[in-house]
Amino acid sequence: MRVKRGNRSVGNLTGKFFHSVASDRTTIEWQGEFLDLVAPGMYRLQTFDWIIGQSSDQLLVPVADMRYWRIYDSAEDMNRAYADYSRKMDRADKIKEVENVLRASS
After folding, report:
1. Are 47 and 20 in contact (CB under 8 A)?
2. CA atoms within 13 A on the CB side of 97
3. pLDDT, position 2
4. Enclosing domain of residue 24
5. pLDDT of residue 71
6. What is the dihedral of CA 71, 74, 75, 77, to 10 degrees?
7. pTM, rounded to two decimals
8. How many structural domains comprise the chain?
């Protein structure tokens, strides 16, 4: 099933996994799975807890709010992407710490 959105067609994301990304295009807010397309342009999602990975909330989210989201074919792909994201964020934090120390010592 394909959903028309303006001039573009949006494929059915049911069964795929996601990270919702804030408008800064960097910060990951939620992780989860697309459960089903409940209406044109509206998905029911299952979010997963960050600590233990268990199912937490089910949400209805319009496609328009998914502009910067990252979509994955499997939970393994999603988890791998989050591990990469975490390493990058850790490196960025360490660089900021060093910059702050250098600034304070000058």
Report:
1. no
2. 6
3. 46
4. 2-105
5. 97
6. -70
7. 0.76
8. 1
Q: State the residue for tokens 């209805």.
A: 60
d(C-alpha 71, C-alpha 68), whole Å:
10
Tokens linked to 67: 């502009």
The CA-atom distances, in angstroms, between 16 and each of 42, 87, 94 are 15, 24, 33
Residue with tokens 């059915």: 12
How do residues 46-91 score in pLDDT, each as one tens digit? 999 988 889 999 999 999 999 999 999 999 999 999 999 989 888 8
Residues 104 and 97: their CA atoms lie apart, in Å, by 11
Core vs surface per residue 34-55: b (16+ CB within 10 A) or e: beebeeeeebbbebbeeeeeee
In angstroms, the first-to-last Cα distance of the chain is: 61
Please name the residue that has the structure tokens 């209406």: 39
Give the tokens for residue 36.
Answer: 């089903």
